[in-house]
Structures are given as structure tokens and as C-alpha cells.
Specification:
Layout: E1 3-9, H1 16-24, E2 33-39, H2 46-56, E3 63-68, H3 74-84, E4 89-94, E5 97-98, H4 103-112, E6 117-121, E7 124-125, H5 131-141, E8 158-160, E9 166-169, H6 170-176, H7 187-197, E10 202-209, E11 211-213, H8 218-235, H9 249-275, H10 279-318, H11 329-367
Parallel strand pairs: 1-2, 1-4, 2-3, 6-10, 7-11
Antiparallel strand pairs: 4-9, 5-11, 6-9, 8-10
Helix pairs in contact: 8-11, 9-10, 9-11, 10-11
Length: 368
């Protein structure tokens, strides 16, 4: 099978050589592979490193193409690749990824068995192996800190709603079309939803494995979570069915915090205002404040217990990698959930205006 492996990058000079080296080391026949590299107008050495790879491996692969993505976003980059690839199937790989030497061959093997879309496990790894980065990795790897998506874990072979690094037969994109370039972070959710609607199944195969680099600092991780949550909020305005209830759990947590704080403030203030006018009303508002206070304490107690239990589970799994910074795990979980949830809240607030802007732009495009 002629396979096209595609990498989309923007300012990835720290990791791009790693994934390019992994591609060069694949045990799949290189004459049956083409490499599509798409640079999103990087301001660092990313494109230069891609050019070096293309020059060094010219003639080794059936084709090495270096393309430009002036719009810079990931979905627009994938669309550049989809318009240019020539293989029977396309294999998407992230620029932050690491793949084993049998990655392509295992994906092709599943496609040749009759699957149209395949993917596998995608655990997280770190570049700088410091104690605190190990703790960040534990937080990111935990189901409590990240998600229960199959590609993060290993549920055995099954058909799923979404995959991360995945291979697609040409017929799939020929039928469903390109990525939605309005969705900067949730483009996979949306296009996988369209693929499922078109009758394709997404096969999760646990023997296929790749790795994703965890963000190298707490600030970068929190920014990533906020952006992920923000785009979940926006995406509800254009494709709510491509999201699951799990995407909104951090938002529900943040909403509960806001509502409980507002309830305590409002009912406490009303109790003081009406106490002089009527004892009965004051008692009602006092009872409501007490109820909200009890529910708030219950919420935080349950969260604390769950955070401590999941932290203990992560530390036990860490084995020799555990260190003193693991004590920060419960607080890291809280920060990750708040970042994601606040991002979703902001996205939901901005979503109506964002959707209106898309519709107006689409309307102008049709008039042309």
C-alpha cells in the first residue's frame, strides 16, 4: 500500500527533528511512502529543518514534499496536505509526537485487513526529565487530569468516536471532504463526527502506539487546557453533537463554584436586608444560605477526596519515577480543571458572536 505520512508544524524546532528522525527510521518500505511536511509560516528554524530532511532523504522515499500553510492553523495545514497527498491512505502525525519504527507498518496492516480508519494508543512523554516535569506528566496522563479518551488508555480493540494519530484510506476524505478551518482546536472532533455520519468506523487498535510530548511547564500546560476548553465552548455553536458530556465536566465544576459563591452572597445579603422587615423572610433566606453552604462543602469535600485518591493512584503507578513534587498533584488537578472549565465558560460566552461572524462570512462568500 502506498501510504502518505503527514506532519503539520508551526514553530516546532525543539521537537521536529525527533519526529522526522522517527519517520526516517520506519521499517515500512520507504519506496511505498511519501512524506508531506507542512510549515505554518514558522518564525523559528522549523522550515529550515524540514528542508534539511527533504534534501537528505531525496530519492529515499517515493516523494518528499514541503508545503506552506499561510493560515498557520492546524486544520488549514491538514487541508493543504489533503490537497497534495498522492497515497492510497494518509497517516496523520503530530509535530509533538514520537513514533516507533513499526508505526507505519502496523497502521497499514490494519488498513489492509479492511479497516478504513485506524489508530491506537497515544500516551504522553516528556522531553526534559526533571522531577516536576515527571509530576506534570502524571497529571496529564491521569484520567482525572486529562480525559478517558481511548487513545490515552488501552480498552482493547474497539470502535470509538475519535482517534489521535490515525490513518485514513483515501475514500474517507473523498467522501467527507476537508477539515473545518473555523475550528482551531476541535477539528478532529468535528471531522470524525462527519466520518461516523458517513458510515465509517474508527478502529482503535491497542497494538498501534505512538507518544505525545507533554507541555514542558505548568504555564504552558494551563494555557493548553484553557485553549482546549475555550474551543469546546465555541464548538457547541456549530457542532454540539461532535462533543461528549465529558468535555463539559470541568465547565460544570467551574459553574458550580460560581453558582455556590453567588448563592452564599445573595442569600446572605437578602437575609440581612429583610431581617428588619420580616422575621419569616429572614429565616427563609437564612435556610437557603445554609443549604447552599452545605452543598458547597459537600462539593469541595467530594472533589478533595477524588483528587487525593487519583493522586495516590498516579503516584503508585509512577513507581521509581515518584518524587517529592508529587505532593502537588491534587493542586495541579485543580488548576487543570479550572483552566479548562474557565476556558469553556469564556468560549460559551463568546460563541454567539463567533457563530454570527462565521455565518456572515459564509454569506459573503456565497454572494461572490
Amino acid at each position: 500500500m502506498f501510504i502518505s505520512i503527514c506532519v503539520i508544524a508551526y514553530n516546532e524546532e525543539e521537537t521536529i527533528n525527533g519526529i522526522l528522525g522517527d519517520i526516517a527510521a520506519q521499517d515500512y518500505p520507504h519506496k511505498d511512502m511519501e512524506v508531506i511536511l507542512v510549515d505554518g509560516a514558522s518564525t523559528d528554524r522549523t522550515k529550515e529543518l524540514m528542508e534539511q530532511f527533504a534534501e537528505e532523504h531525496v530519492g529515499e522515499f517515493r516523494r518528499v514534499a514541503l508545503l506552506d500553510n499561510p493560515k498557520r492553523t492546524l486544520p488549514s495545514g491538514w487541508n493543504v496536505a489533503l490537497r497534495a497527498y498522492e497515497g492510497e491512505a494518509v497517516l496523520k502525525v503530530d509535530a509533538h509526537a514520537k513514533i516507533p519504527e513499526d508505526f507505519v507498518s502496523k497502521n497499514v496492516a490494519e488498513l489492509e485487513k479492511g479497516e478504513y480508519i485506524v489508530g491506537g494508543r497515544r500516551p504522553n512523554i516528556i522531553v526534559n526529565d526533571t522531577p516536576f516535569n515527571q509530576t506534570l506528566l502524571l497529571a496529564e496522563s491521569s484520567m482525572f487530569g486529562s480525559s478517558i479518551a481511548p487513545y490515552r488508555n488501552n480498552p482493547g480493540k474497539k470502535y470509538v468516536n475519535s482517534l489521535f494519530h490515525a490513518a485514513y484510506r483515501r475514500e474517507v476524505f473523498d467522501k467527507v471532504g476537508f477539515f473545518n478551518e473555523d475550528l482551531v482546536r476541535t477539528e478532529d472532533n468535528e471531522i470524525h463526527y462527519r466520518m461516523r455520519k458517513a458510515g465509517f468506523k474508527l478502529a482503535f487498535c491497542p497494538e498501534i502506539e505512538s507518544w505525545q510530548h507533554t507541555r514542558g511547564s505548568l504555564i504552558k500546560m494551563l494555557k493548553q487546557k484553557y485553549a482546549n476548553g475555550f474551543w469546546i465552548g465555541l464548538t457547541t455553536g456549530v457542532c454540539p453533537k461532535c462533543l461528549s458530556i465529558y468535555h463539559f465536566v470541568p465547565f460544570a465544576f467551574v459553574a458550580a463554584i460560581i453558582l455556590s459563591a453567588a448563592g452564599l452572597t445573595v442569600f446572605g445579603g437578602l437575609k440581612k436586608c429583610v431581617s428588619a422587615a420580616g422575621m419569616a423572610c429572614a429565616k427563609v433566606f437564612g435556610a437557603l444560605k445554609t443549604l447552599v453552604s452545605a452543598l458547597t462543602k459537600l462539593m469541595w469535600s467530594l472533589y478533595a477526596v477524588l483528587a487525593l485518591v487519583m493522586s495516590a493512584v498516579s503516584v503508585i503507578k509512577a513507581g521509581k519515577k515518584r518524587n517529592v513534587t508529587c505532593a502537588a498533584l491534587p493542586f495541579l488537578f485543580l488548576l487543570l480543571h479550572l483552566s479548562y472549565g474557565i476556558g469553556t465558560l469564556v468560549g460559551l460566552i463568546k460563541m454567539p458572536r463567533w457563530v454570527k461572524g462565521i455565518r456572515e462570512r459564509n454569506g459573503r462568500d456565497k454572494e461572490r
